[in-house]
Amino acid sequence: MTTKASPSRDTSVAALRVAVVGVGGVGGVFGARLAQAGHELHFVARGATAEALRTRGLYLESVDGDLHLPQVAVHESAASVGPVDVVFVAVKATQVEGVAPSLRPLIGDGTIVVPLQNGVEAATLLADVLPPASVIDGLCRVMAMQTAPGHIRHTAVTPVLELGPRAGQTLEPARAATLDKLVAAVKAAGMHPIVPPDMAVAIWEKFLFIEPLGAVCAAAHEAIGPVRETPATRALLDQALEEVLAVGRAMGVTWPERAKADVWARYDALPADGSTSMARDLMGRRPSEFDAQTGAVIRLARRHAVPVPVHDVLYAVLLPAATPAT
Q: Could you tell me where the beta strands, DSSP code E, fall in the chain?
C-alpha cells in the first residue's frame, strides 16, 4: 500500500477545518482525501472504528491511489471538536435524526452542514434540529465500503460531491464563502465538486437511480443482471421508476424530460453482478437504508396522496428482512 503520511496543502486554496461524522466508506474517502490535501480533519466515531483510527490511523485502498494517514484526530463526541467550517454527515440515513442534536457544538457563524446520505429526507431532518441556515443539500457518487474499522476500500468512480443551497434557501455571505472554499478544496484534493442549478432535482435523480433498483433486486434476491434481463422484473423495475417520478413531481421536482431514459441507460451499463448497497444489506440481513429509501417513498406518497402499488408490495415483502429480530 502506498503510504503518504505527510499531507501538504495547496496554499492557493483556503485551509478548512472539517468534521466528518461517520467514518464508513463515504466519510472515509472524503475525509482522507481532504486530510491528504492538508486540511484540518476531525473524525467523529465510536467503538471499534474510533479505536482503530487512534491506534492505526486511516487506511484508504483506492483506485485513485492508496493512502495511509497514520495519525488522525479522532473524537467520540462532537462537543470535543468545537465549531468547524464544514460538517460532513456521513452516517447511515437511518441514523441522521438520532445524531443531529449532537452536532450543535460543531456549528459556528460560517459553518455549512453537508449531508451525504442516499435518501431525500436527510437535510430536512438536520434543519429541524440544527440552525436551518447552516444546513445545505448534498449528495455524493462513489463506490466505497468499510472493509474493517478504519480501513476503506474505494473500488470505482473518482468521488463526486454535489452540493448547494436547499430549495428556497439563500446562503448568508459567510456560509456562501465557506461553500466556495469547500468546492475549491474538493477540486484541489483530486475529487469532482458540482454545484448544480437545482439541488432538489440532483438529489431526486440520484434517488430515482438507486431506490427502485435496490428494492427490486432485494425482493428478487438477485443481482442487477438477472433483474434487468428478466422481462417480468424489468417491467416491475420500470413501474417502480414511474412511481418515484410521480412522488417527486408531487414534491415539486421538475424532472428532466429524459430522466427515466437516462436511468435505464445507466442500469443497462451496470455490471451484471452488481447491486446497490441497500440490496446488499437487505439480502445479507444487515442494517440498511431501507426505511430512508423505500420507506421514504411510502411516507411521501401517503403525504401527497400518490398511489404507489408496486412500492406497497415491495415494502411489505422487504419489511421482515429490514426489521431487526427481537
A: 17-21, 40-44, 58-62, 67-69, 73-75, 86-89, 112-115, 137-148, 151-164, 192-194
